[in-house]
Structures are given as structure tokens and as C-alpha cells.
What we know:
By secondary structure, the chain is α+β, with helices and mostly antiparallel strands. Helices cover about 35% and strands about 10% of the residues. The protein has a five-stranded mixed β-sheet with strand order 3-1-2-5-4.
Amino acid sequence: MKVGLEQGIRMLYIPSSQDEQRFDRDAGIAIGPILFIIAVLGILAAAIAAGSGSFTTNATSEGNRAKAAALVDIGQTLRIGFDRIMSNGIDISDIRIDPDSTSQPEDLFSPIGGGISPPSTTMGADPTTDEWHFPLIAIPRLGTGAGSRVAMLRVQKGVCDEINSRIVGLAQIDINDLNRTRVSLGDITSQEQFAMDATDAWPLKLRGKQMGCVRLDDSNNVPEGYYFFQVLSIQ
């Protein structure tokens, strides 16, 4: 009986927790990277779903700022070229603005003239068709009725707003008013010596400004839209 009792006790023996098999220390660690990947996929899905949301808006705004800054640099370079020719004693009316004329002292794009290259059109509203124009315009509060030589390029509305807001310093309410103002001029593709009179049409907030952006309408030989302008010379 005693032997049978001892055998029964051994059969009923339950191992303690020290006898149980333990998991490895790194068990379960793989779930961390999985959760991280799931989180990243969720962010990407949200970005794709945003489509025309904040991501696109920010990219567009940055693009407008970059184009506005590039146009300012181009405008200042053109102005420097004009000043260089005039410093050599050449009259404003004798300065020739023609990408094909690059050999004479009066040529804006000549090494011995303005010393600059023709401006790029990549900042235009349609780079494949838009061109720089150099009309003579009598801008109110800027020089005499003889007019100022002005460089102009059609741009997107967002670029126009960026130029007027950050460069000219117009408040948003002024920009809205400006964009509703349609300036009617003559043929801005012409470089005639007779100035187009913009006394009544030029927006009040841009009168006397040597750089900015206006909305053109009913102008000959060019599409209507928003045009960056840089005054190159004042008479």
C-alpha cells in the first residue's frame, strides 16, 4: 500500500512555474515593424485621398512663389541690361530689343550692348506660346507722357497674385480689386516710339510702380490674362 500511495502522489505532481517552458526574450518583437508599416501605409493613403487638398495646395503655392521670384530676377536682369546701354550714351529710343540682333552696342542682347541673354518664357502661363513683349506705355505717376519701356509676360493668376502680394506689397483685398480691373491697351507686341496711354486704365494700386502684375483685356495680338511687368526705362 505504501508503494502504491507514493506512485499516486508522483502521478498527481504538478510542475511549478520554474519548470514551465519560457518564451525567448525576443518573442513578439516582429510586431513592431509590422505596425510601423501599417501606419506608413495609412499616411500614404490619406495623402492620396487628399488629392486636391492641402498637399496639392501647398505644392501649387510653392510653385507660384518660385515663379514669382524667377520673374523678379529676370526683370531686374533686363533692367540692368538697359542701364548698361544707356550708360554708354545711347538714347532709350535707339535701344534695340531683338533676340536676333546680338552684335551692336545698342542691342540689348549683345555682349557689347546690354550684355544679357534673351529672357526665358518658362514662367509664362503657356511656355510653348507665350512671349516677352516690350511696349512703350505711359504709366500714371511714372515719368512723362513719352512713356516707359516695359517688359511684359503673360502668367498664371496665382503667380500674378504672388507678385502683387509679396513684391508690390498689396493686401489680399487690393489683389481682388486689382484682378477685377481690366486694362485695355493697344498692341503690346509693338516697340513703336509712340506710347500707349494707360492714364485712366492702369490700376490705382500699381500707379507709380516699376514692377507688378496687371490684367489685360482687349489688347491687340495677345491673349487676355494676367501680365507681369517690369519697367526698363523711364522718360
